Amino acid sequence: MGDKLNILILEDVALDAELIEYELRREKINFSSVIVETEEDFTDALTNFNPDIILADHSLPTFDGLSALKITKKLSPEIPFIFVSGKIGEEFAVEVLKEGATDYVLKNNLSKLVPALQRAFKETKEQSERKNVENTLKKRDEQLRLITDNMLDIVVHIDSDGFIHYLSPSVKTVLGYNPEEILGLKISELKKFVHPEDFPTVKTGFEQVFTNNTSIVEYRCQNVNGNYLWLEAIGNVLASNSQKLRGAVFVIRNINDRKIAENKLKQYHDELEKMVIERTAELETINKELESFSYSVSHDLRAPLRRIDGFSQALLEDYSDKMDEQGLYYLNRMRIASQRMAQLIDDLLELSRLSRTTIKIEDVNLSSMAKNIANELKTNHPQRDVNFIIGDNIMVKGDPRLFQILMENLLDNAWKFTSNKRESIINFGFQDDNGRLTYFVKDNGCGFNMEESEKIFKPFKRLNSENKFPGSGIGLATVQRIVAKHGGVIWAQGEIGIGSTFYFTLNPKGDGRE
Amino acid sequence: MDVNKNLRTILLVEDDPDDVNLTIRALNKSKIENEIVVANDGFDALNYLFGEGKYADRDSSKIPAIILLDLKLPKLDGIEVLKRLRSNEKTKNATVIILTSSKETEDILTCYKFCANSYIQKPVDFNRFMETIWIVGTYWLNFNENAPSGG
């Protein structure tokens, strides 16, 4: 008690007041005091003197201690209030203590005054500390309440016995129920709110909180209007020392909009998938039809041609002596026409087969392929003088059978269109355009008009007459399809009388050179 | 038409009269002297082979030297004829040459699956057709050793 104390003394007898002050001084209490005896002065001192403690007599001429106690409790309840009286009956003592007096001391035993004072201060200190703690707790409680009251999510505390111990008021906003309707229910009683299909998930989710410490469940819950809403519950186990607080806490969120969007997306996805399956099936049907069409083409269209050719041949063999030159010429033309049509049919079939086959990827040596084709052409047409320049070891990745058709067509073409040249040069090689390899077949043949370079690759588009250069007009269409199947492009450059060059690229991924 | 009665027959299973005509012409041109029997559909062919129907009095133990079988046939198609031939003890070793317009991989595979001896696509060019028939005839009639009968 180092600080100077303000002591308010309610006493009408001056001697008694002096005795009190004497006792205080004797006990070395550092204090200043105000002595009052009327209600007015007491009240005034209470507010203006700021007493640390009040020592009050029991009865005064115009005032009394009990009334003073009541005023104190009303205005400054924290100030310790000690009765100092001549005599105090037991009943009265009980009454004043009940009213909030800190203690009482008899005037004939003033030696007890200072210990009572000290006890009072100690008690007051403890009281104020307790009050502080209470205030802090109250504030925190208020804060928590504010948060949970204003949360959009529902917070549920389920105790270890499975009873709903706390439920945030947001249950009203989210589902329309009053918390009191649900509070205190057992978790199993919530079954009626959960969509029957989702109940097993909810049950598992609830059990998981206790086995895995946490769990997330999405489920449908009935709101107060009877509609089901999608909710997401995130649970966490509560490990508290207090049995009452143990259990689990769940944060439940309305995810209905998200779920609806997700379902819609899934529905779109399913529809799309269904559509793809249907389209694929349709395509397969079309492919099958195409196959049966090509079958009938190969079988039915070829048969009459064979007969035309056969009987023309029979005529030539058995009746040539009965026909003149012109007649024989006509017969020969018939045979050539029928054979040409057979070739057309075969080429068309090849083209349609190409579109349907899936390619297999292997390492293919285009150089040796080109050399073999060149040798064959030379052997079949020994009268021609053609100089083949073929780059070495041009390796590509792709379908060897298709590459054979591709190279045959390009080299056949070059061979055909250089037939009018005395010295033909056919060149197969590649060039590196910034890392992208472009392969080419170049000839010094009759060439073509660049305005027609697009047409070249269309089936049956022929830039030259059949007489000049025979062919079905399908070869380059086939080549283009093969290149496309290998992820590449093909284009042509040419100049009339100078020559043509066919360039093609292949899928860079499967495209390499050793 | 000189037909050597001592030689085994050639059974031509073909429904188109033109093709019958041209095939017989090609066989004749190839100097093949075996008797040529024509069956116009699959049933007809099986009747001949098993000595049934209008061929009831034929000695069905005599198996043709070669059977030239078209695939597209009325009543019973070529594949079916081949299947039945191969599942019959008498004819399971007969020489069957598929002679057809089709070049479809599927057809070729099916024929070999049911043990056709050979598969030939009729060329449109009659000269080549004749050449083919000549080669077929020479090979199967002159050079090939048939399985011993009953074997």
Secondary-structure element sequence of chain A?
EHEHEHEHEHEEHHHEEEHHEHEEHEEHEE
Overall mean pLDDT of chain B stands at 85
- Calculate Rg of chain A over CA atoms: 55 Å
- Within the CATH hierarchy, at the fold level, what is the topology of chain B? Rossmann fold
> Rounded to an integer, what's the Rg of chain B over CA atoms?
14 Å
Ends of chain A: how far apart?
A: 101 Å
How far is it from the N-terminal to the C-terminal residue of chain B, by CA?
Answer: 34 Å
User: Could you describe the largest sheet of chain A, including whether it forms a barrel?
Assistant: 5 strands, parallel
Q: Shape of chain B from CA axes?
A: globular
**Helical residue percent of chain B?**
25-40%
Structure classification of chain A? alpha/beta
- Report the sheet-strand fraction of chain B: 5-15%
Anisotropy-based shape of chain A: rod-shaped
What is the strand tally of chain B? 5
Oligomer: heterodimer
Under CATH, the homologous superfamily of chain B reads: Response regulator
- Share of β-strand residues of chain A: 15-25%
* Largest sheet properties of chain B: 5 strands, parallel
Molecular structure report:
The complex is a heterodimer of chains A (514) and B (151). Chain A has 514 residues and is an alpha/beta fold. Helices cover 48% and strands 21% of the residues of chain A. Chain A has a 5-stranded parallel beta sheet, sandwiched between helices. In chain A, strands 7-6-10-9-8 form a 5-stranded antiparallel beta sheet, sandwiched between helices. A 5-stranded mixed beta sheet of chain A has the order 12-14-15-17-16. The mean pLDDT of chain A is 86. Chain B is of the alpha/beta class and 151 residues long. Chain B has one domain (10-141): Rossmann fold (3-Layer(aba) Sandwich), CATH 3.40.50.2300. In chain B, 38% of the residues lie in helices and 14% in strands. Chain B has 5 helices and 5 strands; from the N terminus they run βαβαβαβαβα. Chain B has a 5-stranded parallel beta sheet, with helices on both faces. At the A-B interface, helix 9 and helix 10 of A face helix 1 and helix 5 of B.
